[in-house]
User: Which sequence fits this backbone?
């Protein structure tokens, strides 16, 4: 059976336009069945602007409430029982859909997923994973990037196992290199959390290469970077800011003189490739690893391309049955460490 992906149609900053455009692109390009959840009148009005969508595997499920970016996550999750997030995640829990995607309030999406889906046995805290392009031409994954601000060493150990399984399965890498983000390569460097986590990670049956530094996010020397959610989120947001600075500065510089404009025209394909490698919309959002179901969270500023790719990656996650592997390997690991 083909994957069915539920999309929170009311999540992004410009909802439901990018959600619907992305859903149409994914249904047309990948054949994925997409369920749009939210205000049905608003969704149908936007769908009517795309006559070609009539024959695609897209359906609409009404939700009478929306959790906004201004809502406090925990309060909104409890108060808005018919929100597009909660309705969508219930469809996953009930087995109607294979996965859920939202570009809405990140805190609320995580809290709702934990409440509605629950955690995989052996996982104390689910973690968000993000991807970074590397100079080696591939990508590196980092987790956690914001789900857990305060962590214990055993949390980071679980992140390492989940991240390694996800990277290995999605990219076909036999033994992904796992590193612990710190301020120096020596195992004595870092704070109490990283020092204690280092010794724990050394005991795991992973290809643990030790501590890595911030620059290793991009040099291709590591595949999976483990961090607590506070440090991971700062690294992620800093990276996004630098990428935007590079794109904007390059664009401004190339427009400065006629000679440079001619050079740009002659090298347009190279610059297009450069822009694509720095474009976060190509990576399809961040999976919330460790919940009983597939849940992806994307930027509030997501465009149609980001939504399309989030649908693609969520479907691949479900088809590879990554959660089954995480549960099985964590159980084996727990038995070995006891």
Assistant:
């Amino acid at each position: 059976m083909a994957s069915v992906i539920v999309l929170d149609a009311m999540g992004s900053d410009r909802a439901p336009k990018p959600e619907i455009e992305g859903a149409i692109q994914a249904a047309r390009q990948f054949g994925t069945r997409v369920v749009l959840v939210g205000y049905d009148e608003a969704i149908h009005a936007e769908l009517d602007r795309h006559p070609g969508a009539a024959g695609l595997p897209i359906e609409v499920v009404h939700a009478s409430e929306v959790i906004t970016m201004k809502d406090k996550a925990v309060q909104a999750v409890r108060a808005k029982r018919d929100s597009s997030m909660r309705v969508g995640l219930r469809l996953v829990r009930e087995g109607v859909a294979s996965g859920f995607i939202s570009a809405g309030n990140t805190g609320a999406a995580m809290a709702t997923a934990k409440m509605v889906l629950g955690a995989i046995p052996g996982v104390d805290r689910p973690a968000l994973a993000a991807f970074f392009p590397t100079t080696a031409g591939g990508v590196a994954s980092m987790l956690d990037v914001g789900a857990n601000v305060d962590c214990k060493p055993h949390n980071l150990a679980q992140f390492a196992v989940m991240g390694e399984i996800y990277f290995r399965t999605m990219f076909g890498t036999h033994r992904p290199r796992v590193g612990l983000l710190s301020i120096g390569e020596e195992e004595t460097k870092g704070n109490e959390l990283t020092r204690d986590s280092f010794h724990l990670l050394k005991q795991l049956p992973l290809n643990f290469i030790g501590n890595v530094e911030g620059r290793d996010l991009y040099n291709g020397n590591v595949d999976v970077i483990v961090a607590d959610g506070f440090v991971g989120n700062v690294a992620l947001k800093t990276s996004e800011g630098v990428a935007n600075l590079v794109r904007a500065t390059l664009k401004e510089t190339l427009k400065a003189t006629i000679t440079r404009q001619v050079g740009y025209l002659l090298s347009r394909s190279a610059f297009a490739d450069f822009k694509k490698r720095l474009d976060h919309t190509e990576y399809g959002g961040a999976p919330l690893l460790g919940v009983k179901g597939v849940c992806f969270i994307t930027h509030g500023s997501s465009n149609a391309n980001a939504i399309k790719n989030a649908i693609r990656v969520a479907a691949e996650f479900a088809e590879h049955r990554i959660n089954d592997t995480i549960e099985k390997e964590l159980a084996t690991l727990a038995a070995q460490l006891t």
